[in-house]
Amino acid sequence: MIEVKVTDFGGASTVLSKEDERSAILAERAQRGDYDDELILEQLARNRVFLTDEGLARLREAFVVVVGCGGVGSHCTTALARSGVSHIRLIDFDQVTLSSLNRHAVATLGDVGTPKVVCLKKRLHQITPWVHFDLRNELYREEAADSLLGRMQGRKPDFIIDAIDNIDSKVSLLAYCHKNNLPVISSMGAGCKSDPTRIFVGDISASTEDPLSRSTRRRLRALGVASGIPVVYSTEKPGSGKASLLPLPEEEFKKGSVGDLGVLPDFRVRILPVLGTMPAVFGYAVANHVILKITGYPHEYVPAKGREKMYDGILAQLQGSEEKLARLTTPGEDAQGMKLAIGIMDVGYLVEEVYRGRSAISGIPTRLALVRWRKPMSGSTMNLDVEGQKISGVRLGDLVCMTKEEAAKHEKAVLRGDQIPEEFYDQEIVELVERRMAEERGFDKFR
């Protein structure tokens, strides 16, 4: 029997068992190529008959980068290694903690206090000793992207997996992959989710009901990336009795800068409620997508309903509204042919991200329009650029989302009339609109 002692950080300090020693020796031999390929093919026999010899060969030659080795990333990596991927780079700055054990794929009590990348390599080499792991025990950051996402033994990654839960790092990674045409898939938030039947794989433009997903989309739209990135996301709605992110206690704010409470700058300082099973479902969904794409296996996900035609209609209506308003506020000026400094991506951003796809007045999600919230100052609705082009002075922060019928009433009473929003609407509606506009101003710095 092995004597077990608990260390100061709650981990178990043990002497390696004979089984662990044998596994380490076997992995060392396999890394040198001293491992019968027939044994590997036998271990992968079920995948082999499913994917065919050609598909499995592609998988065995693939090089995959996993960024984030917590709940989602560890299950994803485990599935990839077990399925035959033989070249994996792991990137994570963090260590295994006691609270990691409710959702980590392979960590044991004895791994508490060790780097997550080291833990994954050690445990998975006991299962798939032939896998070549490249460990990067560091935080993903933009300035190191070329190195962290670069070549391994002369070859570019076949796929990059984003399993990061920090918004700044996530946006930076996805923008880099999009710019450099690197295949990537991103896991959205598994926290506070409990219904595995609501998990989908789709384009980032279609992901809903998830604050991490919404913030990621908004930041990426500001960088010019509106679609083209596959994500795993949950459509489960929050509700009464369901877990939610608890507010930070007031006494913590009184201690000073909240950011100083985190392990690293810009990282969350609150414990996110996570049901241990959900990160596993997310991780396996990510791994499944990567396996299908690399092997060329036929797959077709249920598509999200496109709303581009709706955005076109909203933009055309806004154009007409601005021309009418320019003629009203700038007498004697011809507003015909006036252009907007707002495009279809901006319309999608405002409607979906700022106003959650609903009217700010009634909450109705159909027949939507964008209209100015307040009457502009006389003469401020139209400008001329250097070539004499007439340009509307409207900006994203001026607009509110309503139904077409509500917009018509709003234009008559507020934009062409003498009322202000505070006189025309209930205080609750005014506060909601002002809150959403303040939210947009906060994100404007990323544009």
SSE topology sketch:
Layout lengths: L4 E2 L5 E2 L4 H14 L5 H7 L1 H17 L1 E5 L3 H13 L3 E5 L24 H9 L7 E5 L8 H4 L10 E4 L4 H13 L4 E4 L11 E5 L7 H12 L7 E5 L15 H5 L22 H19 L12 H22 L14 H11 L13 E5 L9 E3 L5 E3 L6 E5 H12 L5 H4 L2 H18 L3
Parallel strand pairs: 3-4, 3-6, 4-5, 6-7, 7-9
Antiparallel strand pairs: 1-2, 8-9, 10-13, 11-12
Helix pairs in contact: 4-10, 7-8, 8-12, 11-12
Give a verbal description of the structure.
Residues 6-14 and 258-265 have low confidence and may be disordered. The protein is α/β, with parallel strands linked by helices. The chain is elongated. The protein has helices spanning 18-31, 37-43, 45-61, 71-83, 116-124, 145-148, 167-179, 211-222, 250-254, 277-295, 308-329, 344-354, 404-415, 421-424, 427-444; strands at residues 5-6, 12-13, 63-67, 87-91, 132-136, 159-162, 184-187, 199-203, 230-234, 368-372, 382-384, 390-392, 399-403. It has 2 domains: 5-242 and 274-295, NAD(P)-binding Rossmann-like Domain (Rossmann fold); 308-444, no CATH class. α8 packs antiparallel against α12. The strands form 4 sheets. Strands 5-4-3-6-7-9-8 form a 7-stranded mixed β-sheet, with helices on both faces. A two-stranded antiparallel sheet has the order 1-2. A two-stranded antiparallel ribbon has the order 10-13.
